[in-house]
Amino acid sequence: MRTFLLVFALISLPYASTGEFGKLRVDTDPPGADVVVVAEIGKTPISNDFMNPGLYKIEIRHPDGRYLPVAMEATIVAGGQPVTITHTLVKPPILTKRNGYQLILGAAAAAGVIWAAVDDDSFRRPAAAAAAGILQAALMVTIVLW
User: Fold this and answer.
1) N or C: which end of the chain has fewer CB atoms below 10 A?
2) 71 with 53: CB under 8 angstroms?
């Protein structure tokens, strides 16, 4: 951490004498998201009045993982207006394509297990036994993927 601060101080030295820093403000809904610019600079809402001018990649991540992370670029201008980022964090969709396939495989596997358990003759019939085995394998794959 000390090395990072020393490098930051050395890079900032030319700007410190002229007072040519830029300003960055980040606010999110809900608040409390981590803001990362090279390193984590804090939690929202956050304000930094000592940013070196230039193009930055800014990442916003909520610590509990219930919201999708966001990455964006911002250009900080020396002595100009503060760059203000206001973002509403979005929750990931409940049913994704992968989850849909897993749900279908799981339902088919569960139906095969129930069919094999209810129909006692199913293990004597090779086709039914093969179908039950395939569906049970699908259940195992679904459990591993889930």
Assistant:
1) N
2) no
Which residue matches tokens 């990072």?
4
Q: Which residue has the higher pLDDT, 75 or 110?
A: 75
Q: Name the more confident of 117 and 15.
A: 117
pLDDT at 140: 74
More confident of the two residues 3 and 125: 125
Tokens linked to 100: 């849909």
Task: Quote the pLDDT of residue 58.
Answer: 92
Measure Cα distances from 134 to 31, 65, 86, 118, 143 in Å: 48, 36, 51, 17, 14
Computed over every residue of the chain, the mean pLDDT equals 77
Which pair of structure tokens corresponds to residue 106? Answer: 């799981």
Q: Report the 10 Å Cβ neighbour count for 81.
A: 8
Distances in whole angstroms, Cα of residue 141 to Cα of each of 18, 40, 97, 115, 122: 63, 38, 16, 19, 22
Alpha carbon distance 132, 79 (integer Å): 71
